[in-house]
Design brief:
Strand order of the largest sheet: 1-2-7-6
Helix content: 10-25%
Number of strands: 7
Radius of gyration: 26 Å
Strand content: 25-35%
Number of helices: 1
Distance between the termini: 88 Å
Structural class: alpha+beta
Shape: flat
Length: 152
């Protein structure tokens, strides 16, 4: 009876190897998330892609927003955080019964981006052209004035 192979003999080794692989993958994933989260504060996944470029005197944020009009988009700058959101609604028309397939529907997105330097809020400009939102964020000059600080 001892000559029969036991089907669960190798399961401990298999589970140990699987555990090591999962731990390695988790460490790798955490490192990638930590590096990305320094700038991107968005919650959850987003299908809207963006680029942040540093062009010496300004930051330029470029966001893919195909199908969105400027009225569908909202930009908000709070401190060093730029929030970009958009929502477009599916319009109900009288000829809806003519559709064979209808996949376009209400869509929305929301992205938050931490900016690496202070921004001159008065000089911010944004435009939408051919489904691309471009935001120019001029950097604010660092104040080099020395100030005396009273000690109480």
């Amino acid at each position: 009876m001892s000559d029969r192979p036991r089907p669960f003999d190798g399961i401990d080794d298999l589970l140990e190897r699987l555990n090591r692989q999962i731990e390695t993958a988790a460490r790798s994933w955490e490192t990638q998330v930590d590096n990305r989260s320094q700038l991107d504060l968005s919650m959850g996944g987003s299908e809207t892609s963006l680029d942040l470029a540093d062009e010496e005197d300004e930051f330029v944020v470029t966001v893919d927003v195909p199908g969105y009009e400027s009225d569908d988009l909202e930009l908000r700058l709070t401190g060093d955080t730029l929030a970009i959101s958009g929502e477009r609604e599916h319009r109900q028309e009288n000829g809806d019964e003519n559709y064979i397939r209808r996949e376009r529907k209400t869509q929305s997105f929301s992205r938050q981006l931490r900016l690496p330097a202070p921004i001159d809020v008065d000089g911010v400009m944004a435009s939408v052209n051919n489904g691309i939102l471009t935001i120019h964020l001029p950097k604010r000059e660092a104040s080099e004035e020395a100030r005396s600080i009273d000690i109480e």
